[in-house]
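Usage

Read records sequentially. Each one opens with the input sequence:
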Amino acid sequence: MTEFVTGEAVALELRPARLPSRALAVLLDLVVALTVYVVLILALAAATASLDEAAQAAIAVASFLLLLVGVPIAVETLSHGRSLGKLAFGLRVVRDDGGPIRFRHALVRGAMGVVEILMTMGVVACIASFVSARGRRLGDVFAGTLVVRERIPVARTGFVAPPPPQVAALFTGLDLSGVPDQLWLGVRQYLGRMGQLDRQISWSMAGRLADEVAARTGAPVPPGMPPAMYLAGVLQERQTRDAHRAFGGGAGAPHAPQPHTNAPHGAPQPGRPDAPAPQGRPSQPRPAHQPPAPQANPMPPAPAAPPAPTAAPADRPASEGRPASGTGFAPPA
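and closes with the structure output:
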């Protein structure tokens, strides 16, 4: 990792590209450029077959300069230092102060590349990269540029083991409301990567974070406890409270709490028939037995169908065979 200082006095940490990755990127660029150059030369040879040899040589030289010198310069200028090979391998050309390159930087690099890469088959460029502390070739030295790596592997965050139960119990009633989220993130990242740090650097970082957490919570580090264990205990308490806040209601649906009263045994309980009426409403006595209320308009039973009348004998008067008025009953003959 190399530190650069920009014009605004900002220190940048960049990782210079080494010779193997740079060589592979240049090789990919040359393969593509030579392929296009050969195809173009064959097409021009067929198109300029009627011209003399001097014209054909001039066209060949112009094509060489255009494809192997002019095109790389234009590509690096327009892409701010990323050619096809550098883009494939995660490399980029920047200035010494970390800024993007311009046309003059790409022009110097391209002109020197013809000498140290194309004419000497890359021998001069390899020697210069071996000698340079930052892996720069002659074109980088004269142009004031540097090839850096853009894709840097990120180390995975390690697992934060929970502290012992006796340590976690010390921070049960701790006030954590004054600790900002940025400080929690710093503690979490430190605990996940403290195994990758130097022992002295890890101890100093743990002490600084522990002092800041103690100033926010008002609970100093217990005597004899390492700062890293103190941070692990506080972080465990924070995670436990977050889990209770998120899942404290249980897995099932919440149920309504039952009212709890301190009434003596035998006293009327709310919700029972003999419970006293609430205040503000007059209490009405409930009768022991209440007869059912009579119906307002009782429906009379349907009358039975009268039997079919029999024919009266001829010698008896017709009035004898008639039923009594209003009774619906016919006397026997």
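Summary fields computed downstream for this record:
- The chain is about 45% helix and 5% strand.
- The longest strand covers residues 91-95.
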